[in-house]
Amino acid sequence: MNKAIWFGSASTVVASAMLAAGFYAAKPSIAVAEQQPQVMAAASDDLSRKEIEEIVRNYLLTNPEILVEVQTALEEKQKEAQRVASLQTIQQAKDLIYNSPIDGVVGNPKGKTTIVEFYDYNCGFCKRAITDMQEIVKTDPDLRFVLKELPILGPDSQKAHVVAQAFKHLMPEKYSEFHMRLLGGETRATEETTMLVATSLGADEAKLREEMKNPEIQKGFDATFELADKLSITGTPSYVVGDEVVFGALGQQVLREKIATARQACQTAAC
Cα–Cα distance between 122 and 182 in angstroms, integer? Predict the structure, then answer.
């Protein structure tokens, strides 16, 4: 199948080369273009596969910039398709993205503008980005910052996040402080180190371990993973701001710009 696709693409390149040659040789290129299917059919009858491959090879070696143009066009097309797909997901799953009961919230819980962060407690970029979040929340009183747990960095992360969810269920009023300590710390997040943070904030270890068995915790993670997949999120941190998905720790300034854009769009749409 791949060879057939390649052969068809190669034929297209050859046809384009033939058309270009005809144009620059002052031949009636419009007529040639109109007859392109017939020209290619005749060419495939007269030329062997090996000859066509040689023509394609020589043409691309002579005009390598075509490969760059094709790659650029493909990347732009894929990026736009991803943007459209993400926009549809955001519109269809607004409640799950912005108001899921499994997510923590920092900043103003009633803020008119919301930014959602997908993170893993063992993500180094997330740890560096926590100061961006703290500064933005501190200086923007109308911002609601949603914390969406996405444990993608192995078994340690998965167990640490289970402890985190159990803590949130039992002590939601201290979840923000718990989050800052764990993500802001230098120690790798494991079940043990996360439990230490939780108990240092007053949690009862026995109750925590019992709550960790709650099947709703895993259901919540499954829903987040499914949502991340639909948004084409494969790494952390990633953000949803307004109708846009932002990938990577791009810094405080970029996040502020995205928030401002979302705010402006919301005002325009009177939301």
Answer: 9
Contacts of 161 (CB under 8 A, 6+ apart): 120, 121, 149, 151, 221
**What's 189's DSSP letter?**
-
Q: Which residues of the chain are under the pLDDT cut of 70? A: 1-46, 81, 83, 268-271
Q: How far apart are the first and last CA of the chain?
A: 49
Q: Which residue is listed with tokens 């033939």?
A: 18
Dump pLDDT digits (tens) for 3-30: 343 444 444 444 444 444 433 333 334 3
Residues 6+ apart with CB under 8 A from 206: none
Give residue 176's Cα distance to chain centre.
Answer: 25
Tokens of 172: 């939601």
DSSP three-state, residue 95: helix
Cα(132)–Cα(136) distance, rounded to whole angstroms?
6
- Could you write out the DSSP letters of every residue in 142-164? TEEEEEEE---S-HHHHHHHHHH
- Strand stretches in 26-153, DSSP E: 104-107, 113-119, 143-149
User: pLDDT digits over 149-195, tens only?
Assistant: 999 999 999 999 999 999 999 999 999 999 999 999 989 999 999 99
